[in-house]
Amino acid sequence: MYKLKKTIKDYLDNHPEAKQRVLSLLFKRKPYQTRLKGIFWLITIMPKYFRRGICLSARLDLVPFNKFRFGKYAKLEKNVVVNNGMGDVIIEDEVQIGIGCVLIGPIKIGKYSGLSQYVRLLGMHHGIDPIAPHHHLPCDTAPIELGEDVFIGTGTVVMGKKNGEVLKLGDYCRIGANSVVMDDIPPYSIAVGNPARVVRKWDFIENAWVKPNKESDTEVAPELIAPLK
Predict the structure, then answer these.
(1) Continuous segment of H or E residues that includes residue 12
(2) Does residue 167 contact residue 158 with C-beta atoms inside 8 Å?
(3) Can you count the helices (H) and strands (E) in the chain?
(4) What does the pLDDT read at residue 34?
């Protein structure tokens, strides 16, 4: 089934007119909305609301040509918005997504990670041409990838990189409340602020959080991490 979907997607990507006809069958007319047309939504999206861990008040703005993976024992709380229109949304096992969060793909959230309330993961950027309304402008993908056991505090915004490279939050990093993350955060570190910067790192020798003395100090030796996996 995955190979068939990929074949169809590749064909549509290479044939814009055919893609436009398919999209017109799936989506509502202007003003632009990501909700699929009624009957198709009932068949393809509605059943996902009955999966264990997805609150009925969550909004799943999903399309059939990109992935939405929801791991075992993961949880979407009230009023969470998930949109995979720009790219895949992958939520691994035991991920907790708090009230009011917004997830716009392409994003991947590693196992055991947690998002507090009203966190936004934005894996895309709008065009900025001033001669047209913003919703008429093309969008660019800006992928976001969270490692395992990452925790993001309340009100934080994680914005993908403008150059389209993957923004990575390393394993076990912690992001303070109301931060704005626009660049990579190394593993086993604490970052806060706007823009977010590393203020503490875990010292595997001292077994304590310490202030980073220099940028290279935020690197974690692989031989120290390996026994923890």
Answers:
(1) helix 2-14
(2) yes
(3) 4, 21
(4) 59
The residue-averaged pLDDT of 112-140 equals 86
Q: Distance (Å, rounded) from C-alpha 73 to C-alpha 92? A: 9
Dihedral angle sign, alpha carbons of residues 191, 195, 101, 184 = negative
- Non-local (6+) Cβ contacts of 143 within 8 A are 87, 106, 107, 108, 123, 160, 164, 165, 166, 167
**Checking DSSP bridges between strand 139-141 and strand 174-175, what pairing results, if any?**
unpaired
- pTM, entire model: 0.79
Cα–Cα distance measured from residue 65 to residue 84, given in angstroms and rounded to the nearest whole number: 9
Q: What SS3 state is found at 102?
A: strand
Q: What's the CA gap between 99 and 2, in Å, rounded? A: 31
pLDDT in tens, 23-45: 776 666 665 555 666 677 777 77
DSSP code for 217? G
Count of CA atoms in the C-beta half-sphere (13 A) of 39: 1
CA-to-CA dists, residue 148 to 93, 94, 169, 174, angstroms: 10, 10, 9, 11
